[in-house]
Amino acid sequence: MRSTSSTNGKHRAARTAATLIAGALALSLTACGSGDDKSDDSNETGTETGTTVTLPKLDGKSLEVAAVWSGAEQANFKKVLAEFEKRTGAKVTFVPAQDPIINFLGSKVAGGQPPDVAMLPQPGAIKQAVDKKWAKPLGAEALKELRENYSQGWQDIGKVGGEQYGVYYKAANKSLIWYNATVFENAGATEPKTWDELLTTAQTVYDSGVTPFSVGGAEGWTLTDWFENVYLSQAGPEKYDQLAKHEIKWTDPSVKDALTTLAQVWGKKDYVAGGATGALQTDFPASVTQTFTGGDQPKAGMVYEGDFAQVNIVQAGAKVGTDAKVFPFPAVGDAAPVVSGGDAAVILKDSEAAQALATFLASPDAAVVQAKLGGYLSPNKNVPESAYPNAVQQKMAKALIAAGDDFRFDMSDQAPQAFGGTPGKGEWKALQDFLKNPKDIAGTQQKLEADAAAAYGG
Asked: What's 313's domain CATH number?
């Protein structure tokens, strides 16, 4: 079996701890779900706490940063890079990358032109970059910032073989379901806390004349996130860790149970906007915006995805906390799931400028710039809650930091990219096929296991 995370065992949290975190998140989201939006219109950048990190003067230096981000996410990150330019005098160019980013970087390395820094969305990708001898270890200044600002768990997932390569600049709470407040009000629907209650809420929304769910099935990663939340809650954290490392097979009965549960939504006639065909043609941004446009008759009443959906909600002209509300992914088993994701800065060309950028991204200063713009969470524990633009996101940030090391990282992101991070292949493709035919549970398991065995090397 190929290991994709040398420190995965350190992230094992007790089921009771996950329950407490999920409960606290549920309480905080409920408390701020009635429109107590404090400063949603703020678009200012800069830090609230002043300059906390010392950076070298880099006049005349230039560097490239590659990431798969697009749209508002890319635009907001460019403002962070602009702040770095302002402080150092360096010139930074953003290089749009394509999934899987390891393949993109491979072509750049082969051509002799790798970017100086890459934002890698998977621990598995960090390990691959280290194994290929592309990645360079973090220097002393970056390590100092990381140790001061990050919990041990967030440091560890950026390590390979005990050495620090990644700075997890961006985090995600992937255990959320967003809903159109007007649709819920018109239907008389309530926020569910369990999977059975979610199905009841969905039927209530359906009976009111609105399709319950929007699913961005054109992008397979959204489907892996659905699966992971159901699996973590239903099978439990120990099984989750085992499946993430391929210590148990995808033909395990626990996977069958999770797919059977998913089919209660994906296989329910008229529960998914556009049906399976429509969902498979809907990308993630559209899955969000179509939930919050169309007045009281949007294409769907709910959409599952992480806190970063806020960017698309705002683009749809909706206000977070008023038009768009949110509840934690409901408990399927004993405890509600707490799944996190993130993007790590990894140095590919070791230079003073690249190390300075990694140091900046590990500091609160960089995170505050992007936090103010919305649609972003930082695992940096020294970013003030007040940096986030609305009460909903402030509560999410508080819950993320309060969780400390008690979280489960996105399972597909821990896998080799051939299985967990490649469009049209592996887990992404198998779950897209399952969305199309939710009755084929056994066939889906067999395909998942065959692809996983090949990717993990046995």
From this structure: 3.40.190.10
Q: Are residues 323 and 250 in the same domain?
A: yes
Q: Show the tokens assigned to 453.
A: 């065995």
What is the extent of the structural domain holding 293? 176-328
Asked whether the predicted pLDDT for residue 42 surpasses 60, the reply is no
Bridge partners, residue 408, by sequence: 339
**164 in the same domain as 81:** yes
- Is residue 111 domain-shared with residue 219, that is, in the same domain? no
Which tokens go with 151?
Answer: 């919990």
Of 335 and 276, more confident = 276
Say how many domains are in the chain: 2
Considering only CA atoms, which of 368, 31, 336, 334 is closest in space to residue 177?
336
Residues 73 and 182 in one domain: no
Last residue of a domain, one of 296, 328, 360: 328
Angle at 239 between CA 233 and CA 240, to 5 degrees: 60
- Please name which of 172, 180, 188, 170 lies closest in space to residue 326, comparing C-alpha atoms: 180
- Which residues are 63's β-sheet partners? 92
Spacing of C-alpha 354 from chain mean position:
25
List C-alpha distances in Å: 334 to 13, 208, 306, 327, 414. 14, 31, 22, 17, 24
Report residue 254's pLDDT band, with 50, 70 and 90 as the boundaries.
very high
Cα gap 87→59, rounded to integer Å = 10
Q: Which residue has the higher pLDDT, 422 or 301?
A: 301
Map residue 32 onto helix, strand or coil: coil
Contact present, 364 and 149 (Cβ < 8 Å): yes
**Residue 256 zone, left/alpha/beta (φ > 0; ψ -120 to 50; rest):** alpha
What DSSP character marks residue 203? H
